[in-house]
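Quick start: read one record
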Amino acid sequence: MEEFKNYTQKLAIFVIKMAIKDTRYINPESYLFLDQKRKLGLVKRIQKHPDICREINLV
């Protein structure tokens, strides 16, 4: 229960500071949609294993 109380206090302080300073939350990482994540995964696999390109005739 103590852990939950600490979490709620931190959240409340965060919200109050945002309201006082009138700032918006900026996500440190841009959000990727599912199709973008899939494409990114394919790109990473191709970079790791360039022989995959030859197998599926991309080169």
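Helices lie at 2-21, 34-48, 51-55.
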